Fold these 3 entries.
Entry 1:
Amino acid sequence: MPPTSSQTAKRLDPDKLAASALELADVEGLEAVTIRKLAQRHEVTPMALYRHFSDKEDLLAAIGDRILAQIDLPKPTSERWDVQLRTLLTAFVQALRPHPKVAGLTLYRILISEPGLALGERTMELLVEGGFSVDDAAEVGRQSLCSLITLVTTEPGSNEDTDPIAREDALRAKRASLAALSPHRYPLITAAADTLICPASTDRYYALGIDLVVAGIRGVLADLGDTHAAASQQK
Amino acid sequence: MPPTSSQTAKRLDPDKLAASALELADVEGLEAVTIRKLAQRHEVTPMALYRHFSDKEDLLAAIGDRILAQIDLPKPTSERWDVQLRTLLTAFVQALRPHPKVAGLTLYRILISEPGLALGERTMELLVEGGFSVDDAAEVGRQSLCSLITLVTTEPGSNEDTDPIAREDALRAKRASLAALSPHRYPLITAAADTLICPASTDRYYALGIDLVVAGIRGVLADLGDTHAAASQQK
DNA sequence: ACCTGAACACCGTTCAAGT
DNA sequence: ACCTGAACACCGTTCAAGT
């Protein structure tokens, strides 16, 4: 008879390891996620982790998967495809937002993890419903999701220290570097320095980012339609 | 009399160091860029590099700056703002394309290096000419440039080994992982597997990516206009 | 001013061994 | 099956010293 899980003295499990790795990354940054540190947190030898992850890349993949698992996929409705797409992309961003320092790890996992695949499939569904060919839906969907990941990882101020003092210092230093520029040579950048360093409202930052993606999709679809129409007229 | 540069036996200079670091990254990837390896390439002790870069971060910044320095900023013309913007963004992508493995380093340098600032200022100029407020131009421009950087760093196939054999292996493995999916559960993803793994044409991939960004900008501008119009009507 | 040399703290990972 | 312990190759970086 094989030992049941209650009999084996399993002290570690991959889910909890990935969870505390994600925690570590959120607080101290991705470079702080180390096999050795993670082992220490679980009061175990570094080598013990290799029972559960084949190597560090595998651990980072688990972190990415954990973030994607937080996606709360909205149910299909009777709304227009582009309205539903906006809701879908917003749900995606919502899952990433708590983890700006490591959201980039999802890039390589969207087409592998189950929740990522579900998101990708649903995105393509809506794009095809809107009128894209399957191949165009793939390329457009891919870039849209990648752009939104970048929107989160580049959220101004997100990569600073968690420590509020060091954080203010970093922001002040950035502001100073822009303030030192010649307003004559860079009138617009210096005028918008505050916005560039840290947007007035984070919610607006994300709303505008998502709008930009959705508007791009609508616009490209219209252009492709024109091209087809023009091609038809040439006959 | 201070020694002229011909008298000092300077064996290293930051420009050449950054250049060979970029070369190294292009061929072997960013993780291969190491103070020690770079020193070895120049037949020098690792510590010698610290005369020219304050630390590794500084070296990576120099790589980013080197890429941005390749931007060939198009001259202003009498074309419409959005046509000129497309040309400008294309020039930006053109500078990044030779370096998909390290183009991400430019993210933190756009608002610091001179060519990056020139690009940012010109982008904002065109956006303001199009009708954006200065602050909106800052946010929209920022995300547009970030999206294009991501477009390059996620160019399918770009992060594989340079070795054509290993490269084919990696692509085949990815294809297999998508091919193993249930076409019943993921009909669109499996149907578009080839396109997702490696787009039919790289030039088309980039053209579509830039179109998406420009169309998004145009669309958001129109929406903002509507909002203003609606707000005016409410008076 | 520019480079060397030895040392330190910290990585990921292999291999052999314990229970 | 799961974990330990010692070791290896490789990092970035400090410090003191050479010319």
Entry 2:
Amino acid sequence: MSQVRVRFAPSPTGFFHIGSARTALFNWLYARHTGGVFILRIEDTDRERNQDDYLQLIYDSLSWLGLNWDEGPGAGGDFGPYRQSERTHIYREYFEKLKAAGRTYEQDGAVYFKLLGERYEAYDDHRKKTVTKVRNAPAVIDDRIRGRVERTEDEDLVIIRSDGNPVFHFVNVVDDITMGITHVIRGEDHLSNTSKHIELFKAFGVPVPEYAHIPLILKSPEMGKGKMSKRDQGALIGDYQQRRFRPEAVVNYLALLGWNPGDDREKMPVEDIIRLFDFPGINQSNAKFDPKKLAHMNMQYVHEMSEAEFEMENVASMSTSVTTSNWVQESHFPEVLRLAHPKIKSIDEVPEYTRYFFTEDYPIDDKVRTKVLAKGDPKARLDELIAALEPADFSSDTAIEEAIKALAEGKGLGFGDYQAVARLAVTGTNAGPSITSIFRVLGRERTLGRLRRFAGTI
RNA sequence: GUCCCCAUCGUCUAGCCUGGUCCAGGACACCACCCUUUCACGGUGAUGACCGGGGUUCGAAUCCCCGUGGGGACGCCA
């Protein structure tokens, strides 16, 4: 059997979103699984709505996700050009073929593709007008995911607009023919279009490619009904990139949306996904997007990052913000990251989580304050702690722990009686690394300064 | 409205093709407990689903039909 050639064919008319990414991913996975070719083709025939920014975003997002293309813009290939705006001569040539076969006609300045069959007038309830229908035999789609699907195409369709630009259905088919596409893997929303495409393939006298219509990604119940769109919360790939999500986590999650390896495995390296990925593992029903599960997947990948990797990502992330760019210069920055790493769920929450390590200007959580101050005698505990820490050894967690434990024991109390109020004073919250680590990293001066300052407010 | 696709816990899903091993398994979320100096992580456990109705069969989550529900398409957008 000849080599598999698949394509991802986005149009640069909007932000790159989850749905497009998943379609790209499934094509890429299939190409990698079969040792085939993954082609990137830019469908920019709608000149009005195309934008260079959106085009760049497609390249950036695919690259970020690791979905490298073998042929396409920037990669070359023998079937180019790979932007439809540069392929007009090819469309012209294929249009002439149809014209020569007597399968086109002009109307209102546009060129129509003529279906074969008897014509009749009928009222269309959806468009609220009378249209010309054609008695046509159903097109048979032998779909690798849906099975045999029949749909009758019963209206001529525009293939060249009155402004001279060819239309999606036409260029899509011509490109699939001329680029030697063997498998068309795309969203189920195209299933109804497929009959149009099959009629065109037949008119050109060439065999149709294999079709695989993958399920759609729908909004989560909280987001509403219908399919996910670029306007939905969490729909944009660029957002995850900005938030420093792990691209492998996004890929892993997306792969599981509509596909599974057939067993309970979820978190798996992309090599394994490639090995196991195939049409039988793809579901037929649509899947709702779950931001929480994606976040969980991302957390798992973040936690297994190496220290160096985690630091690099955070430096990159925090350097871009004016408030945090100074933090990365601090000598204790690496140590703070080591403390935060196992505690946080995603990289974009690190700045807020570690704020008090870098500035005296950290907020005091009112709710926590009220709660902590309501218990026991916090003022007394704070004063005792200050006295005990003044001469203490701050060089290690255990040294600090010994000092506090000795203090607690002397008063007939426990470590916990000092922990909560000390944490509130020094961090403003009730969450964070162990209090001894915080003290150690902050150092004696800053720790005592904060304890004294806070003691003065209660 | 017409046409097309789909239907297992709130969500993602295994099981369905090749009926019995399923009073339906895993994961996320939620709840409880454990771990613990806080908060997380982690661990243990709990709650939670075969859309409805017919049929086929000794037996149906699994096969068939009809409803219903969900999704999509119906552009000189892609």
Entry 3:
Amino acid sequence: MTVKTRFAPSPTGYLHIGGARTALFNWLFARHNKGQFVLRIEDSDVARSTEESAQAILEGMSWLGLDWDEGPFFQSRRFDIYRVHAERLLDEGVLAYRCYCTPEELKERREAAMKEGRPPMYDGRCRQRSDAPALPYAVRFKVPPGATSFKDLVKGGVSFDNSQIEDLVILRSDGTPTYNFCVVVDDATMNITHVIRGDDHINNTPKQMLLYRALGYDVPEFAHLPMILGSDRTRLSKRHGATSVTAYREMGYLPHALVNYLARLGWSFGDQEIFSPEELIEKFTLENVGKSSGVFNPEKLLWLNQHYIKSSPSGELREEFLSRLKALGVDASADPRLDAIIKTLLERSKTLAEMAESALFYFVEQVAFDEKSARKFLTPEAAPLFAELAEGLKALDAFTEEGIEGAFNDILDRKGLKLGKLAQPVRVALTGGTVSPGIFEMIAALGRERSVKRLEGAVEFIESAGGGGAAGGGN
RNA sequence: GGCCCUAUCGUCUAGUGGCCCAGGACGUCGCCCUCUCAAGGCGAAAACACGGGUUCGACUCCCGUUAGGGCCGCCA
């Protein structure tokens, strides 16, 4: 039997971190076992579902690289299938029945029960009803007595007493099917072999198993993944910060970093931390999924992101980098320095957003001097150094890191200075601030023209500042 | 309140009865490297929730307590 898993989100919001991990584990399990992965949109609650959410979820999946073999199926387009199944149960007479209680009545009873400390379960009062008033009715599944247990692939043995399970509604009074019923009909008719989902669904499992049996279908395997919690150990939600996959994309995270992080949250393979998607597929098994919930740790994600950025070939990030620059007002698509520039930024950027921002100085016409840095480093003593370096750079045969270093060393030797005494002022002259990539690689990437111009501009700046001139920039 | 699940460093985790006075990673701190910032290297602090069993021997098995989470909808 070939393995078939599914991811079945409800389109009531964006793809969030928890959903993404559920999708990932389903995908990994299917790929590892050379099986199929199905995407199904659970929009049986038509009122709450939106087209945009469904679209956002598909985009999130694609961005993460989680491709599906079948679907997306939409429950809203399968209502007749559910109705046929529900009627089958109703026809049997003993498996389902019509309930004429109104939602308002039910709510009242539930609240009363809660207040008295009783379990807020439906009491089954319409079970015995033999009349058929001309009133709206919902269809309820008649939960049989006994116990329902199963062997969860991550949690182990789980058992429920059926007396704890109420007669659930499978068809609303408007004729639409409910979640627990749709899931069963869908998973059965789509031949899902392994249901892998969040453990907030573990209580639904016995209800669904009972439904499978009533319908005469085989019960699939279940694997319930522990929840992802926020730093305060409650269910991860918006107030814990960014929780949507899209948000991480926008902040400049790489999909592999997110995938790697999510995989290691709840799953492990010895001491290994870094996994390519291929490696995850090869190594992923449900046995190595932990049973306990885990706290989402943005700092570790950030570390992974930095890891993936610094180990990316510069060409791989080019497009994304360009579009981020563009958003900052820089069109660098035709700039021949592009790859060299990216290379200088690779190992000092935690996100793509940060990378684009720290690249800005390479492209601006006028360097904006940071006031404090300028006061400290753009001094009258520095001016002749800049002039000399500008000459040295002009005279270079090859404008390479080695050549540039040579030009620096000439000056250093002549003046008897340490590199720091020259590099830091030069850094301010060229970038406007005191933080940048290594001085030689940075100058090589900046280019000869601009480096010389900016040095000369800094000399002018110093001279005019000496005469009381205003702060400005070099070229 | 009832039911279900869970319990190793701050966090993610390794550990499947002796290899563990518990290993790795993020984070934190210190040192080294160093032209700044990073990266990198080295090192440090940091955990088996508690109580009973079982066993020659428990982080590992069982029971209980405690704590956390989840679910109790004509939401999914």
